[in-house]
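Now for our specimen.

. . .
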Amino acid sequence: MKRSHFLSFLAASLLVLNINLHAQKPVMKFGKIDPAHFEMQIYDKDTSAEALILGDYGESQIIYDQNDGFVVEYSRHFRAKVFKKSGYDLANQELILYHNGNGQEKVLTLKGSVYNMENGKVVESTLEKSMIFAEEMDSRHTEHKFTLPNVREGSILEYYYKVRSDFWSLPDWQFQHSIPALWSEYRVSYPEYFHFKKLQKGYLSFSVSEESTRPVNFTITETSRSSGYVSTTSTDRYQVQYTDNLFRYMQNDIPAFREEPYMNAMVNYQSALEFELASYAPPRGMVNNYTQTWEKINEELMQDEDFGLQLKHGGFLKDVVAQLKVTSNDQARQMIAAFDYVRNTMKWDNRHRVYLSQNLRNVYEKQADGSDYINLLLVTLLRELGLPSNPVILSTRNNGSVHPAQIMINQFNYVIASVNIGDKTYLLDATEKDGSYNLLPPRCINGQGRIISETRTDWIELNSAQRYEFTNVIKAAIGADGVITGNMQRSFVNYAALNKRVEIKGSKDKEEYIRNMESSNKGLTVRNFELIGIDSLTKPYKENLEVEISDLAQIAGNIISLTPLLYDQWPANPFKLEDRKFPVDFTYPHIYRDIINYTLPDGYVLDEKPADLAISLPDGKTKFIYRMRVDGNQLQISSTLDIGKSLYTYDEYAFLKEFFAKVVSKQAEKVVLKKST
């Protein structure tokens, strides 16, 4: 019986591919450093840069291995110059590799060096094997970390690695980073049998974008042996022709993409190129369509022993279920009780992942692990209580946005729980110790998540129904010496309360929290304080402060002047870019209220006061109202900034920038008190 000659064909094509690709001249040679780069003290085009990428070169190719079939080999060679201590982080790198029962990604080569100029000579420090650490993140991912040695100001560092993957997935390439780059290049090669979709991200154009083909012609030889009492061999030769697809992308003089106030993850907007396998059409074979559907991903997850199948084994929670059912028959109360139980019992390790690496029962008994364990445990507990609950997979804000048209599970890195009660859907994350059931942590508020269920799968909005709400009521007296004494009653609701609780829990004790408050607010002395509702997570958190404030009022002869909002005014317009190409993302709506009543010092009258102001953005959802009036020796101020919408687009940026300029200007205006004659 003849063996298939397809394998012989592929083995021959491998030979041709290697001859052509490996014959290319290296773009950078490891260890060969341009002497001029040592002399560089700053980057003239960006003098504030803490480092400069001297070159970043990547190459991905699909080759054929006689033992493993088609595989992907991906390599990266990175080189950078460090100018400042803040650039030392470039020495810390990580590779996250995937594996499952069908294959793996593995490191073939990893090397790195740091070059320093000492006494006119280049001294090289190399990356040793002992400096490379591998750690299992979950059942599917391994993290390889390394730190390049002896990095200091003026160092040049570089590293090179090659990864081999059994999965037909071409790695994405990021051209733009938080530091500038002289150039970045990515080359891709794969046989004509593969078809990939390409997605370009960011706002920069390619200086080189080449697509070409290369004809390959060769002869393959196939030997076959007949069966029977007398075996014979025969040899056949075939002429084979196919096309190799080549792609080259390059950008030069790439500016740094720096974080701006109120933006989602930078990775959403940096220049990058992504690939997705669409189909594979082998010679003399059927076309295999690899374009996924969300329904198929849902089915695979529900049948995965490290995800959906775990939800069917909740018997170990029977004692907890019995306890929770005794407390109440109301479904909403049972949901809250289950949420509180998991949140208080389990401890989050601050890692983001989707798949489990051990079963839920073991995790429950250890009472510590990742978001996937905690929230899948919560889903299991809710189901055991008879509540309709499902997991929701999502991408956290720092992981980037999910693109629904790109049907890939690797877009997601986090799991939360959903539960339907009546006509309302609750989204729950029990990892946040200081959060309540009705507050989704800010890291999770990122577009849409995907419901994973036996009966349905769909998108669900991750926008929060709650807002950040801060109110400060001040009743104080202004002394003739400019010292302000009185009482502050500060109220923090929803996300404002969550942030404060995290801040307080991060302090050694309440006294340290107050000392930190004093040190961060010029002239503030807290004479007495009461902190209310630190542990009442569903209620507002409040502070009653008896304060004395010096150094904020200016005295010139018989004149006292001060900015009346004290510490609550916006110090500067957060929006400084003339042209911001990406959205302004406040995460959730905000409202800031100040209600202030000052008693004027004896013998003083109001000489100058800011004019009242009421403005709003064209959509009417964001507005600012500033009012001031005098009643005898009482000066009353009210200021309300209501940011009623979470996301403002590029087209709305100019209006938003002008709006905040007016807010900052108005809040900075002083009141002037003059001593009457």
